[in-house]
Amino acid sequence: MEFYKILVPVIGTDADEEAMKLACRLAKKNKAKIWAVYVIAVKRALPLDAEIESEIRTAEGILDHIEAVAEEQDCEVDTDLLQAREVAPSIVDEAVEREVDLILMGVTYERRFGQFSLGNVVPYVLKNAPCRVILYHQPTA
Amino acid sequence: MKVVIMGCGRVGAQLAALLDAEGHLVTTLDTDAYSFRRLPPDFNGTALLGNGIDEEALIRAGIEEADAFVAVTQGDNRNVMAAQIAKHVFNVPRVICRIYDPLRQELYSTLGLEAFSPTTIFAQLLKEKLVS
Amino acid sequence: MYIIVVGGGKVGYYLTKALLDEGHEVLLVEKNVTICKNTVDEMGSVCFRGDGCEASTLAEVGAGRADMLIAVTGDDEDNLVACQVAKHKFNVPRTISRIRNPKNETIFKKLGIDVTVSSTNIILEHIEEELPTHSVTRLLDIRDKGMEIVEVKILPESTTVGKAVRELSLPEESSLCLLLRKQEKPIIPKADTILQSEDRIIAITPLESEEVLRATLTST
To answer: What ipTM does this complex have?
Structure first.
């Protein structure tokens, strides 16, 4: 598999870091371009372009950190901060717009109502992504 | 007292029977004739087929002369609408309605409707039984 | 403008689409999961699954900053409650309700809904316009003045044919604005204008005088 443009959606978990390291390794061969993207989900009570300072600060912190992780791997990444009503469709839109050939995302083990759950985002991305998708899942510490 | 009761479910039918037994003039209104089976065999009041959010059905049920109107159908919104028609269009002196949704009940109470939420009342009752 | 549409039936679907096309921020609130899914697949994140009559749903969709709420479910009572909750709990400046039963128009006005739209009435009016025996057509409601603009056709058998405008005893506050006559330019009716068969008169009248105006102009 050859990749030239890789999108790594992040939310600030440990799995994100590992996913980014993996993306860097995959990128090396073809000098692929990597984008790290964070999506702020804006509640309907606010307009879509509202500037929610606390959220923006958190998001920028996470993106800075992931950029540093990539740098340690000798990789350069571009970061994107998006605002949307729903996270998953905006990841897919971003993938379409950037014409990426891979979405690589970390998943964390979560239980919802006592059952293992992938949440809303992962299934949507798997279903609607225009490109390959790699999920990185790690055992809980 | 002349009372029009909209909705002949368990609560509506029982209320109709109780008031009727005390000698009040009761008319009960329901969209399904099968509901009237819940009325006791010795019920002296009137059972009418009709929709309580329809002005004409309410007039047929004698709302213009009614002293009280009670809305206890399964639909919160139907109860709300019928109660407001009774209160604001026909000026019935006493109007009471059931609203299951506590939030809606709160809102319409502040708007001046005498509304009860069985949800709130029963949850409170159970809690008191449990912790007292 | 931020507009909330309650009810994702045919009316809600096309309304949402049309409002989006006009560039508004629109959110459709619909209970049915399949309808929600289809809407989102087609139009993007513009649908919220929930009961638009519930205050908690309206809070979640940000009704507090909405400029308008339009309730177009198939049930009048649901539309009424959605509008009332929006108005009284979230101070939405403008609420519009669809009504199925034309009789509910006056009740809804009394209960504080800004605008009601009755599809039944609209269809009825359009059909009535096409009936040759129907001599008065409502053209426009001027709601805040309680007036309306109507078109009246003068039928050949009417006793007003050949009479001058001054001879007619028009109801107070009603006036004839324009007279349309075949093969002629529109005429502004004066006291000495003589009515002819097949004339079409555009008149303004208070709502309550419509019937008297009709009787005056079309008596046979």
So the answer is: 0.86
